[in-house]
Design brief:
This protein is mainly beta. The chain is built from two helices and eleven strands; from the N terminus they run βββββββββββαα. Strands 1, 2, 3, 4, 5, 6, 7, 8, 9, 10 and 11 form an eleven-stranded antiparallel beta sheet that branches. The radius of gyration is 15 Å and the shape is globular. It starts with 23 loop residues before the first strand and ends with a helix. Keywords: Dioxygenase, Oxidoreductase.
Length: 158
């Protein structure tokens, strides 16, 4: 697989709106807006939006995750804290959790993820995974299905 290189040190993604066609629907309740694919270091950055009361399946990460809540609130079923608008969250690797969005507000959160996201069943067995390459592949499929320019994905690769 070949990845495009960009000769700029920094890039700015401007104006991510609600109707931005680059939002990728993961489930009926969850969608994400990719911001960067760091294929060299196995990381990606994205906005994650979850509908009110929606959830992201039980999972853990193989490396640390950093997050900042932009709007709404969410929690993990396995913890007693709530991440409100303006909260910063650090997720250590290996901790199993199930994200649930606030029942009334839902949530939008900026995530920086490294390594893999490993989905588990109720017994803790792996049932799926995502990493920077599967996320990039999913984004390319979204672009294709939506009739959008494939080079948009290349512009987000670092």
């Amino acid at each position: 697989m070949k990845f495009a290189s960009v000769n700029v040190m920094s890039e700015i993604v401007q104006h991510v709106s609600e109707d931005d066609p680059l939002w990728v629907q993961l489930t009926d309740q969850v969608r994400l807006r990719p911001l960067m694919f760091d294929c060299t270091n196995g990381a990606w950055s994205n906005l994650l939006r979850v509908t009110p009361g929606g959830s992201l399946a039980c999972h853990y990460h193989t490396a640390p995750v950093h997050a900042f809540v932009i709007d709404g609130a969410w929690r993990y079923l396995e913890h007693d804290w709530v991440a409100e608008t303006g909260s910063f969250i650090y997720e250590p690797p290996g901790e199993v959790h199930t994200l649930v969005a606030d029942e009334k507000r839902g949530m939008t959160t900026f995530f920086v993820t490294r390594g893999s996201l490993v989905y588990t069943d109720s017994d803790g067995r792996q049932i799926g995974f995502e990493d920077v390459f599967t996320r990039l592949e999913r984004f390319r499929a979204h672009l294709s299905e939506s009739g959008l320019d494939q080079t948009i994905a290349d512009q987000l690769i670092r």
